[in-house]
Amino acid sequence: MKRKIKISYSIDRIIDINSFLTDINISKDNILKLYQTKGIYVNSKLVLENKLLLVNDTLVIYLYEESQDFYNKPGYFDIVYEDDYLLVINKPANLNVMSNKQYYEENLACYVLDYLNKKEIYGTVHLVNRLDNLTEGLLIIAKHGIIHHMFESIEITKKYYVRVEGHLSNKKDTITIPIMKLNSDIKRVVNDKGKPSTTIYEVVKENSDSTDIIATLVTGRTHQLRLTFSYLGHPIIGDKLYGSKISSNLCLCSSYLSFVHPIYKKRMEFSIHPSF
């Protein structure tokens, strides 16, 4: 039998339930749904409407079952970290994250959903950060929409390990460019009408004809790093879309993530080495 995701809180101040749940970034609609699905307990007693919480009360939330509106299929993926609320996964290159017409069955979300079902967890797949098909590296997946919503108030530090063509004249820099999408094409362009993007980078190693870089995203635009380094005249190796002449997997890896856990309130840090 499937089990609901459970969150427990020890109350340290006098506050009503609705205000407490709002403070931890649960929406009004979700608060109502928690009451409707009999998911709120105070001191082991079911609560069906708002009431006052006292110091040392124990509030327990059982997250409701979510619909799983896409295909699930067994498939291997590398789990870097897991707890009751989220997964951190090392996604390989050339694997789509979500289901679409081209990758209806062969995608990470299908694999993770199958994994959650086999563990009999009431939940589904919610991407906290996104990586495109060609990019490898660290990806956060919340196991429930309420957990996902909590991440909206949490700052995530993202760093990428990148290998670009040639040698950069500036070994450390901050690059700001406006990025715009043209029509229905997936390719982005630098255009004054686009949305601003900012990338901080630092060279960590110079090879004979390439450079290894650590890049930190200040903003999170689609293809931001790929377009930024192409704009600088040093496309990421393997990035044919943005001018690389080298035949290779895309040398772009989400190598570092740091965030405060939405439930445990502890600083979490994860780092990996890129496959290239």
* Estimated radius of gyration: 22 Å
Domain unit count: 3
Low-confidence stretches: none
The CA-CA distance between the termini, in Å, is 42 Å
CATH superfamily placement of the largest domain: Pseudouridine synthase
> How many beta-strand elements?
17
What amount of the residues lies in strands?
25-35%
General shape: elongated
Structural class designation: alpha+beta
CATH architectural grouping of the largest domain? 2-Layer Sandwich
Average pLDDT, all residues: 94
Order of helices and strands: EEHHEEEEEEHEEHEEEEEHEE
What summary fits the major beta sheet? 11 strands, mixed
CATH top level assignment of the largest domain: Alpha Beta
CATH domain fold name of the largest domain: Pseudouridine synthase
Describe it.
15% of the residues lie in helices and 34% in strands. With 276 residues, the chain is of the alpha+beta class. It has 3 domains: 57 residues, Structural Genomics Hypothetical 15.5 Kd Protein In mrcA-pckA Intergenic Region, Chain A (Roll); 76 residues, Pseudouridine synthase (2-Layer Sandwich); 98 residues, Pseudouridine synthase (2-Layer Sandwich). A hairpin with a 2-residue loop joins β3 and β4.
What's the gist of this structure?
By secondary structure, the chain is α+β, with helices and mostly antiparallel strands.
Structure characteristics:
single chain, 3 domains, elongated, eleven-stranded mixed β-sheet, 276 residues, alpha+beta, Structural Genomics Hypothetical 15.5 Kd Protein In mrcA-pckA Intergenic Region, Chain A, Pseudouridine synthase
